[in-house]
């Protein structure tokens, strides 16, 4: 039995239908940069997984730096909820606060998260005959 060049030894006993496809899949996983990088990406995606967080992230991305009150007004989310979301974003390293006199403004600090947010837009209208 030929060993696939990227297959870890602990999986060498497993049979593959297409060795090249298995290697391509492993390259895709390893290309992220290892377990710590996978954890960081999973954290980014978890930040996007809740509608209010996503709303705040989109507003920060497109308007930041922005004050909590303005963010609450723009998003329709209460000041308290926006503050809680911002606390989570600061702890995750995705946002930062900047003091401007008595006003604290928040901005997005994670460029990879910003790239993901750039991909969030209204879906295209399905064309005639498209499968839904």
From TrEMBL:
This is DNA-binding transcriptional regulator, ArsR family. Gene3D superfamilies: Winged helix-like DNA-binding domain superfamily/Winged helix DNA-binding domain. Residues 33-128 form the HTH arsR-type domain. SUPFAM superfamilies: Winged helix' DNA-binding domain. PROSITE patterns: HTH_ARSR_2. CDD domains: HTH_ARSR (cd00090). The lineage of its organism: Bacteria, Bacillati, Actinomycetota, Actinomycetes, Kitasatosporales. Keywords: DNA-binding, Transcription, Transcription regulation. The keyword Magnesium does not apply. Pfam families: MarR_2 (PF12802).
């Amino acid at each position: 039995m030929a060993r696939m060049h990227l297959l870890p030894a602990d999986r060498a006993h497993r049979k593959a239908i297409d060795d090249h496809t298995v290697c391509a899949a492993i390259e895709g996983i390893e290309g992220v940069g290892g377990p710590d990088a996978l954890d960081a990406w999973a954290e980014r995606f978890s930040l996007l997984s809740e509608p209010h967080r996503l709303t705040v992230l989109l507003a920060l991305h497109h308007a930041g730096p922005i004050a909590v009150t303005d963010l609450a007004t723009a998003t329709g989310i209460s000041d308290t909820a926006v503050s809680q979301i911002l606390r989570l974003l600061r702890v995750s390293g995705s946002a930062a606060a900047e003091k401007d006199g008595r006003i604290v403004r928040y901005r997005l600090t994670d460029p990879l998260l910003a790239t993901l947010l750039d991909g969030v837009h209204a879906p295209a209208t399905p064309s005639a005959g498209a499968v839904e």
